[in-house]
């Protein structure tokens, strides 16, 4: 029986948001859902959609792209936080045969129930991410790596978190030639830069900003669409440089600060360590889960 990945995400602490903040968060999540469905349309069994006001869900053909979508959503949704339950197992046959005509709210099967339970456990244990499948030993490895990612993220100062998020958006983890509309993606990022999402103030003219961000994201996503994903296979390690130094200069120019300041925030915020851990998870999902080893 084929396995598929069910992704369920909700807004963390949504009840603590003011009405204005909650509306802003839901509106932003709606825009992200439209964007995500376009990027992953070739690997979706059931498109990502709202299952409730603060929750979205969808079914992917494989686990690596479901995890990749989680990372995109987490970074695009900044500074709001999400929780993610990811389930990997079987789904009901009618979803596979007639998925284009079905609502995401009709999801059923073991993968869906795994994802539901994983999200519930995230809430109980204050986790940002949990994966459940029929392979408990593999799940433990993935979940412990992502727990370490959460520790790094939680320990970041506001300025470190801003720089980490900007770098992840300019140079996203991309995988297997995903269909990214660069212009549309660029607008998401520029909207965040111009709408007080970050504690930094943008010092660059908008036309110049748009041109340079577009070029940076285009080059970044194209470079990241290779299978090695920064891995030095000869030495069995990642390459030393995960985020190219040119992006430090680019952000310094946008924000009217020094390159050294950007580099320091990147290093003290463990931005590259976070990326290495997430790339490790991505590789493991592809080579262990999706290949059925």
Per DSSP, what share of the residues sits in E-state strands of 2 or more residues?
A: 5-15%
Shape: globular
So how many helices? 11
The residue ranges in which pLDDT falls below 50 over 5 or more consecutive positions are none
Count the E strands.
Answer: 7
How much helical structure, as a percent, in the residues?
40-55%
The N- to C-terminal Cα distance equals 14 Å
How do the strands line up in the largest sheet? 2-3-1-4-5
- Please identify the structural class as seen in this structure: alpha+beta
Rounded mean pLDDT is 86
The helix/strand order is EHEEHEHHEHHHHEEHHH
Rg from alpha-carbon coordinates: 19 Å
How many strands, which pairing sense, and closed or not: the largest β-sheet?
5 strands, mixed
Summarize the structure.
With 293 residues, the chain is α+β, with helices and mostly antiparallel strands.
Describe the fold and architecture:
The strands form 2 sheets. The chain has a 5-stranded mixed β-sheet with strand order 2-3-1-4-5. A two-stranded antiparallel ribbon has the order 6-7. The chain is of the alpha+beta class and 293 residues long. The chain has helices at residues 19-39, 63-76, 93-98, 110-125, 136-155, 158-170, 182-194, 206-223, 246-255, 259-268, 271-289; strands spanning 4-11, 44-52, 55-60, 82-89, 129-133, 231-232, 237-238.
């Amino acid at each position: 029986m084929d396995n598929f990945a069910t992704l369920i995400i909700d807004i963390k602490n949504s009840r603590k948001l003011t009405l204005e903040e909650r509306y802003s968060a839901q509106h932003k999540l709606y825009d992200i859902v439209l964007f995500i469905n376009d990027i992953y349309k070739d690997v979706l069994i059931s498109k990502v959609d709202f299952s409730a006001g603060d929750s979205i869900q969808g079914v992917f053909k494989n686990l690596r792209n479901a995890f990749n979508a989680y990372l995109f959503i987490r970074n695009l949704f900044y500074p709001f936080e999400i929780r993610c339950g990811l389930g990997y197992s079987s789904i009901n046959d009618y979803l596979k045969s007639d998925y284009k005509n079905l609502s995401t709210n009709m999801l059923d099967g073991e993968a869906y129930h795994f994802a539901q339970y994983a999200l519930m456990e995230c809430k109980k244990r204050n986790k940002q991410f949990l994966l459940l499948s029929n392979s408990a030993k593999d799940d433990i490895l993935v979940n412990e790596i992502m727990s370490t990612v959460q520790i790094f993220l939680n320990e970041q100062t506001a300025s470190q978190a801003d720089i980490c998020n900007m770098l992840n958006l300019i140079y996203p983890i991309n995988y297997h030639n995903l269909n990214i509309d660069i212009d549309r993606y660029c607008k998401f990022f520029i909207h965040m830069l111009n709408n007080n999402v970050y504690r930094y103030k943008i010092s660059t003219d908008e036309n110049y900003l748009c041109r340079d961000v577009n070029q940076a994201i285009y080059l970044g996503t194209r470079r990241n669409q290779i299978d090695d994903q920064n891995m030095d296979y000869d030495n069995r390690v990642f390459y030393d440089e995960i985020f190219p130094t040119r992006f430090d200069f680019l952000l310094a120019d946008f924000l009217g600060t020094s390159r050294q300041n950007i580099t320091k925030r990147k290093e003290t915020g463990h931005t590259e360590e976070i990326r290495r851990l997430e790339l490790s998870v991505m590789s493991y999902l592809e080579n262990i889960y999706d290949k059925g080893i």
